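Thread: "does anyone have the structure for this chain?"

Original post by V.I.:
We have the sequence but no experimental structure in hand. Need at least a predicted one for the grant figures.
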Amino acid sequence: MKSFPPDSYSMDRNIRRKGMKMAQTQRLGKGNTTVKGNAAGDLSVVFHSTEVVKKVNGVITLRNGGWRTATTRTRMNQASNQFGLGYTVTQKDYDWFVIYKGATLAFNGDEITLPA
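Reply from O.Q.:
Generated one for you, tokens below.
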């Protein structure tokens, strides 16, 4: 897979200057994140050493690697927004859920595969 260069657009400076605390959600953050893709539309997003988003042949797999953190969830949602994957990962009462194609799916364990 071909590596994409880091995104040149960064809101970090604006967030610090304005005193905002919420991470931007439209594009992947650059910190500890690697994105790879190919002409077929396959995609891999690695946060630290965990492949948090994988799309191969239209099938999307989300993994938290045992790290149920706000940042892991944010990276998953940023990837969905940036690449138009159509899901949202949410949390309620410490449980994770994925909203995809109008359905709410429980994110049990460390991995969930979304149907094509």
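V.I.: this helps a lot. The radius of gyration is 14 Å.
O.Q.: and The chain has a mean pLDDT of 81.
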